[in-house]
Structures are given as C-alpha cells and as structure tokens.
Amino acid sequence: MYPLKHFIACIVLFVIMFPIYKFWALVVFVSGFLIDFDHYLWYIFRFKSFDLMKCYRFCACKKNVVKNMLHIFHTAEAWILIGMVGAIFYKEFEFVIFPFLFSLLVHLIMDFIYGLTHIKVHERALSFFEWMNKRKSRRYV
Ligand SMILES: [Zn+2]
Question: How many folded domains does the chain comprise?
C-alpha cells in the first residue's frame, strides 16, 4: 500500500486520539507509518543498495512481483513480540501503548485489505519461519 494512505490514516488517528493522549498520540506515526521502514530494509538486503527513491519506485511498481518477501515488522512473530511487550508494560505506559498498538492494527488491516484487493497477499511472508522454510526449500529465493 502506498505510504500516503497510511500517513493520512495516521493523521486521522492522531486527531481522534489527541484530546485523550495529547502529544503522546504522535506515536501513531511510528506504528502506523514508520513501520513500513521494513520495506526499505528488505530492499537494502535484496539489492545491496541504500537508494531510497529506487526502493520506493521498485515497491510502487505493480509489475515487480517478488515472492516470499520478508518485511520483518509485518510478521506474526513481530506482532506477538510487540503484543507481549505491550502487555508487560501496559500499566506503566498505557498512554503510549494503546495508540501504538491501535495504529499498528489499523496499518495491518489496511495492508491486508490492499493485499486481498490487489492479489498481493502471497508476496509477503506472514511469518519469519514461513520465510525461512520457503527460502530453505528454494521454492522462493
Ligand atoms: Zn505495511
């Protein structure tokens, strides 16, 4: 999904959450927008290039279909880890954790809907172990 749509969703979430969380609501941009930084990490490892614009163009081009991409912050293991850390520190950091997790959830739902409507759901590994398994079996490299 294009970053602009995630950014707009974050602005909406920020406006809704600002009366309750004040400037802590800015954390929605971390989990709702900056989480897609893992696309750039994937691009760096795959193409050995730090060129952000090339990465953007590659990811935005619908002709580029890469199977078994690992976007580490979009895996089930990352969500479980984030959820566990959130549950452990919820009492002390409730003012940050709720906006963070809610924005993450909105981001993932938007990505999932985009994947379903654009038949791209199988490009990204949903689990780190799934990615490792496919990579090991050489079905997708
Ligand atoms: Zn995403």
Answer: 1
DSSP state of 51: -
What are the residues whose beta carbon lies below 5 Å from ligand 1 (ion)? 36, 111
**What's the residue count for the chain?**
141
Domain membership flag for residue 120? yes
- Whether 141 is in a domain gets the answer no
Encode pLDDT of 34-49 as tens digits. Answer: 999 999 999 999 999 9
Residue 104 C-alpha to ligand 1 middle, in angstroms? 9
**129 lies in a domain?**
yes
For residues 8 and 114, give the distance between their C-alpha atoms in angstroms, rounded to a whole number. Answer: 15
Q: From the CA of 124, how far away is ligand 1's center (Å)?
A: 10
Give yes or no for a contact between 12 and 84, defined as CB atoms under 8 angstroms apart.
Answer: no
Centre of ligand 1 to C-alpha 57, Å, is 16
Range of the structural domain that residue 83 is part of: 3-136
- Residues 108-137 pLDDT 10s: 999 988 888 876 656 788 899 988 888 888
Instruction: Give the predicted TM-score (pTM) of the model.
Output: 0.82
